[in-house]
């Protein structure tokens, strides 16, 4: 007899059960907008310390998913836990697509980066150390005394990524963080971000419209269906890191991309 899937368990157990190595557990998630059901009784497990890319048809609810998990958007029903803890007990970071609205125009880069630390119970010295450590991990040349208007879009997004990471988040959410940037800056930021996330073992959910990016950044690609949204498939991608443009030329990448495209096309045709 086949093993019972978690969703076949009685509700009481389903809410408690999750596979080893899981960081985020989503159970029975339901979300409707004006009569449209986006998620209905949706379950998801996100592994600890891994990068999971979220990819799917237009409007299927990629942003809605990470916004609900990160607490930006209320859920209609369901439970979300982080290592069994609530969101309030978990340190998270969030990077928005639109960095222009995310960075504070009145603050220098360094003050933007430092900002979230003021909400943590730390001494001034500890805050400085935290910022220093982060800057060292990124290892980039950036004049931190500049204001956002004196920086390129890519530099501003870099600042907002650093601001999200300065609190040493257990979980990081990114909603199309590179889609407004030019290709050169995108490649540069992907490389830097990957390095820091892997070093710090941050559990990461990345929404991307770019399938190559979704795969190249990910340990696992979460492919979603059209609404009401379910998981179409989860595909592991185990290529060595650091990954760069050449990663997308490898046989394993091409295989994962072909399978992802097949699922995506099937969904879009429905
Ligand atoms: N505040 C809202 N009010 C009404 N409908 C909404 C709201 N936010 C999202 N939706 C709808 O919910 C669905 C999912 O939206 P969401 O932005 O999460 O999808 P997405 O997969 O991230 O989209 P895209 O591929 O366009 O980035 C869409 O049909 C969208 O129109």
From TrEMBL:
InterPro entries: AAA+_ATPase, ABC_SmlMolc_Importer, ABC_transporter-like_ATP-bd, P-loop_NTPase
Pfam families for the chain: ABC_tran
High-level lineage: Bacteria, Pseudomonadati, Pseudomonadota, Alphaproteobacteria, Hyphomicrobiales
Protein species of origin: Phreatobacter aquaticus
Alphabetically ordered keywords of this record: ATP-binding, Nucleotide-binding, Transport
ABC transporter domain span: 24-251
Name of the protein described by the UniProt record: ATP-binding cassette domain-containing protein
Superkingdom: Bacteria
Molecular function via GO: ATP binding; ATP hydrolysis activity
PANTHER family documented for this protein: BICARBONATE TRANSPORT ATP-BINDING PROTEIN CMPC (PTHR42781:SF8), SPERMIDINE/PUTRESCINE IMPORT ATP-BINDING PROTEIN POTA (PTHR42781)
